[in-house]
Amino acid sequence: MELTMGLKEENLKEAVLWEPSSGEDKKIQCKLCNHRCTIDDGKLGRCCVRKNIDGVLYSLTYDKVCSANPDPIEKKPLFHFQPGTSSFSVATMGCNFRCEFCQNWQISQAAIERGRINGEPITPEQIVEGAVRNRCKSIAYTYTEPTVFIELCNDCGRLGKERGLTNVFVSNGYMTTEAIDFAANWLDGINVDLKAFNEDYYKRLCKARLQPVLDTISYIAKQTNIWLEITTLLVPGENDSDD
Ligand code: SF4
Fold first, then answer.
1. What is the spatial distance between Cα 38 and Cα 40, in angstroms, rounded to a whole number?
2. Which terminus, N or C, of the chain has the lesser number of Cβ atoms within 10 Å?
3. Residue limits of the Radical SAM core domain (predicted)?
C-alpha cells in the first residue's frame, strides 16, 4: 500500500552527521555520503531527501516508509549471511546516485525528479515487530540507498538488536567512513554494488565516482567486523565484453 504525503516539516527528523559550514551563515555540510554536499538554508542535498531548515539538517523520509515486507535474504542478495532465512526488507524514497539503469527508479528517483516523497508513517517499533511476526532473522535496508535514510536504520537497528535481529544494508557503497563508524555497532552485513571498475562509467551513468566506493569496500573489509559481499550488475554494452 502506498500513501502520498506532502513534506510536512513538523514530522521531520533531525539528521545525523552534518556540521555548520565554516564562516557561512546557516550553510551546512552533510557528512553522510561522499558527495559531502554543502547546503544553503532552505535547500536540499543532492539526494533530495535531506534539507537544511534554518541551519539544521533534517531527514525528510524518516516517517515515510515505502516498502516493508519479508524476503529471502538471498534476494537482497546476500548468499553467505544467515542463508535460508527471511529478511524484513525496508525502504524509504531517495538515493544519492542517479543510475540510468536503476531497477527501482520509481522509488529511488521520485524525490529527485518530481520532488515527491511517498510513504507510510511506520515506526521503528512497528518495523521490528513486523520482522519478528514474519519470523525474519534480520532487517534489510534495501531497494533504495539506505545511507540516505540512516536515521531510520539506526533506530530500527538498535531496537532490532534487542530482539535478536541482525541488520543488513544493500548499498552503493558511497557512504563516508564517518557513516560506517556510526553504523558499525548495529550493522552486521552489507552487500556493496560495485557497478563497474571504471571512473567514466560511474560519472556518466551514475553521476558519482568509483574511488569512494573502493575506499568503502576496503574500509569495511579491513577496519570493521561487518560481513561484506560485493555484487556487480551487468549492463549489456556498458560493463561487459565478449572476452
Ligand atoms: S546524503 Fe544526501 S545531502 Fe548528504 S552528502 Fe549525500 S547526497 Fe548530499
1. 7
2. C
3. 80-243
Distance CA 176, CA 212 (A): 8
Cell of 47: 539526494
Candidate of 47, 61, 147, 180 to mutate for ligand 1, largest count of ligand atoms within 8 Å of Cβ = 47
Cell numbers representing residue 144 in the block: 533504495
Compute the distance from residue 35 Cα to the ligand 1 centre, in Å. 6
**ipTM of predicted complex:** 0.99
- Joined together, the cell numbers standing for residue 191 give 552487500
Domain 65-231 has CATH 3.30.1060.10: no
pLDDT one-digit tens code per residue, 114-161:
778 999 999 999 999 999 999 999 999 999 999 999 999 999 999 999
Q: From residue 172, how far is each of 99, 144, 145, 189, 216 by CA, in Å?
A: 10, 9, 7, 14, 10
Q: For the chain, count helices (H), then strands (E).
A: 7, 14
Q: With a cut of 70, say whether residue 2 has pLDDT above it.
A: no
Sort residue 219 into left (φ over 0), alpha (ψ -120 to 50) or beta: alpha
In sequence order, the β-bridge partners of residue 120 are 65
Burial 194-228 (b: 16+ CB within 10 A, else e): bbbeeeebbeebbebebebbebbbebbeeebebbb
Question: Length of the chain, please?
Answer: 243
Q: Which atom of ligand 1 is nearest to the CA of 33?
A: 6
Task: Read off the pLDDT of residues 183-199 as tens digits, 9 standing for 90 and up.
Answer: 999 999 999 999 999 99
Ligand 1 centroid from CA 119, angstroms: 20
